[in-house]
Amino acid sequence: MNRFISAAAFAAACVSGVQALAQDGQVKAAPVDFRACTFHEGKGIKDLNKVAEKFRVYARENDFNYAAWALVPEFATAVPYDFGWLGAWPSSEAFGISMEKWKATGGGLAEAFAEVMDCGDRHELAMWVPITAPESSPEEGVLMISRCTLKDGKSDRDAYQAHLAFGKHMRGLGSLASSWLFYPTIGTGEIDYDYYHAVAFYRYSDMGAAMELYANGGGHDAAQKLLDPITDCQTPIVFDALSLRAFDER
Questions:
Q1: Contact indicator for 104, 81 with CB cutoff of 8 Å
Q2: 10: closest CA among 199, 181, 156?
Q3: How many CA atoms lie within 13 A of 156 on its CB side?
Q4: Is residue 128 scored above 90 in pLDDT?
Q5: Percent of the chain having pLDDT more than 90?
Q6: Is the alpha carbon torsion for 76, 81, 83, 87 positive or negative?
Q7: Which terminus of the chain has a smaller tally of CB atoms within 10 A, N or C?
Q8: At CA 235, angle to CA 7 and CA 120, rounded to 5?
Q9: Chain-centroid distance, C-alpha 174
Q10: If 0-12 CB within 10 Å is exposed, 13-18 middle and 19+ buried, where does residue 62 land?
Q11: pTM value?
């Protein structure tokens, strides 16, 4: 189901779908944001880490309930940025509070970030729901992200159930993957997909073990049975996920 609709209409549709899942008692949705960032000439990850340390201090002093990672493309083609800034809040209320604090007090730190990188061309907000996710926020590791499109006549609820069944199947085989669905809401513009599927591993050896289970341990057959009738997910981009701040940092 390829949907080319306005950002506002898509936001309403996605939030409605997430709310329907939440009302069923299946998930708790929360916001996540993504910024596409390019380093200024002569700048790199070491410079980002220096300003990120200032952000850690600022977030701690201002009681931010927010986690962030730098996503550095590892397996990708023609990605038009150096890294992605991925941030997550535990709730929409936490998002609103931290945004107000940042707008009121974060100007100096924003200037420090701007000396290192430009993140002005792309800033998106999504609502994430867990599939097979840990209780605490993930640490550094590997993140795979795919864009997924619902098949005709299928719904967000159908996709959630299919991914949940497949995630449980892979866990039963021994996979250590954590996974989420991200529903784009604000800032995406015109898009031709319905949601993102994000899969995380703590290390590449865990990712390789899951790939083996998928290719030779029955995972592919389960995907054809559970996912293929519901959704079409593109080949994922693989990122190295570097922690910039954890939820529980004090």
A1: no
A2: 156
A3: 26
A4: yes
A5: 79
A6: negative
A7: C
A8: 40
A9: 23
A10: middle
A11: 0.87
CA distances from 75 to 48, 186, 219 (A): 21, 27, 21
Q: How many residues does the chain have?
A: 250
Query: Do 126 and 33 touch, CB atoms closer than 8 A?
Result: yes
pLDDT band at 91 (very low <50, low <70, confident <90, very high): very high
Question: In terms of pLDDT, which residue wins out, 16 or 128?
Answer: 128
The answer to whether the Cα torsion of 189, 230, 12, 199 is positive or negative is negative
Element (DSSP H or E) covering residue 231: strand 231-233
Cβ neighbors of 143 (< 8 A, separation 6 or more) are 69, 71, 86, 198, 199, 200, 238, 239, 241
Q: Is the pLDDT of residue 199 over 80?
A: yes
Question: What distance, in Å, lies between the first and last C-alpha atoms of the chain?
Answer: 44
- Output the DSSP codes for 184-228: EEES--S-S-SEEEEEEESSHHHHHHHHHHHHHSSHHHHHHHHTT
Q: If you count DSSP H runs as helices and E runs as strands, how many of each does the chain have, helices first?
A: 7, 10
Cα-based torsion angle of the residue sequence 147, 129, 97, 247 in order, rounded to the nearest 10 degrees: -100
Tally Cβ neighbours within 10 Å of residue 77.
Answer: 7
Q: How far is CA 207 from CA 142, 202, 204, in A?
A: 8, 8, 5
Residue type, 96: G
How would you classify the pairing of strands 237-245 and 231-233? Answer: unpaired
Q: Which two tokens stand for residue 141?
A: 């590791």
Rounded CA separation 139/127 (Å): 20
- Give residue 191's identity as a one-letter amino acid code: I
